[in-house]
């Protein structure tokens, strides 16, 4: 049996490739991983959350980003595209980059079958190393379920699971509440079966 051989890329090579690429990819410690396209429900959920955040953080020194802005996690040598994120105060960018930030306060990932395990494990563990990150939210696109992780100390997170359409996601770090009915607005549960 042959061992799989991986190409190794530097961060500079990845960024150069990413600028010319037609599809997004993430970078993890020398390896480039192509991202799959998102479903309509995935896009609806991410868009609903982004809209709710933008409508609610007005007047606060916070800004919401969706999909096409990367996060750089230096400690893990990792570039990733969160589905939605919030930055408060001054947005800190990677040197000479206006599309890659280093200081998210909130990160939200919409789960898909191909990324769920990764979003729950390796990616979350990388996010833990961001001192600025206070809240991490996983949103299931196949059923009514939101998992809300809030940092309680440098190495501890509290979990709250929301499964009722009337439940409210309380993003305490920015003083924003979003109902699950808003998050799942226009989601077609039968679409996944088509």
Percent strand equals 25-35%
Q: Judging from the principal axes of the Cα atoms, what is the shape?
A: globular
Strand arrangement in the largest pleated sheet = 3-6-8-9-10-11
* Main pleated sheet: 6 strands, mixed
Please report the first level of CATH classification, the CATH class. Answer: Alpha Beta
Structural class: alpha+beta
Record keyword descriptors for this entry.
five-stranded mixed sheet; disordered N terminus
Characterise the protein shown here.
This protein has 5 helices and 13 strands. It is of the alpha+beta class and 194 residues long. The protein has one domain (39-70, 81-193): tt1808, chain A, CATH 3.90.1570.10. The strands form 3 sheets. Strands 3-6-8-9-10-11 form a 6-stranded mixed beta sheet. The longest helix has 17 residues, at 40-56. It is globular and about 45 Å long.
Describe the protein's topology.
Layout: H1 11-20, E1 25-28, E2 31-34, H2 40-56, E3 62-66, E4 70-73, E5 78-80, E6 84-88, E7 100-101, E8 106-111, H3 116-120, H4 122-128, E9 135-140, E10 146-153, E11 156-162, E12 168-171, E13 176-179, H5 180-183
Parallel strand pairs: 4-7, 8-9
Antiparallel strand pairs: 1-2, 1-5, 3-6, 4-5, 6-8, 9-10, 10-11, 12-13
Short précis:
By secondary structure, the protein is of the alpha+beta class. The protein contains five helices and 13 strands.
């Amino acid at each position: 049996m042959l061992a799989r051989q991986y190409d190794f890329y530097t961060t500079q090579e990845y960024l150069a490739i990413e600028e010319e690429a037609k599809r997004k990819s993430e970078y993890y410690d020398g390896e480039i991983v192509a991202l799959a396209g998102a479903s309509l429900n995935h896009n609806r959920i991410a868009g609903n959350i982004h809209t709710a955040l933008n409508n609610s953080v007005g007047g606060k020194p916070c800004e919401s980003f969706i999909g096409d802005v990367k996060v750089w996690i230096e400690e893990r040598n990792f570039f990733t595209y969160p589905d939605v994120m919030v930055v408060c105060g001054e947005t800190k960018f990677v040197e000479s980059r206006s599309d890659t930030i280093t200081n998210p306060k909130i990160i939200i990932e919409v789960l898909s079958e191909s990324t769920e395990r990764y979003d729950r494990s390796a990616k979350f563990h990388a996010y833990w190393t961001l001192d600025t990150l206070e809240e991490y939210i996983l949103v299931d696109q196949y059923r009514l379920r939101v998992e809300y992780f809030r940092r309680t100390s440098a190495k501890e997170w509290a979990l709250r699971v929301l499964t009722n359409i009337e439940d409210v996601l309380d993003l305490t770090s920015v003083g924003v509440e979003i109902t699950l009915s808003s998050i799942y607005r226009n989601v077609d549960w039968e679409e996944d079966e088509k």
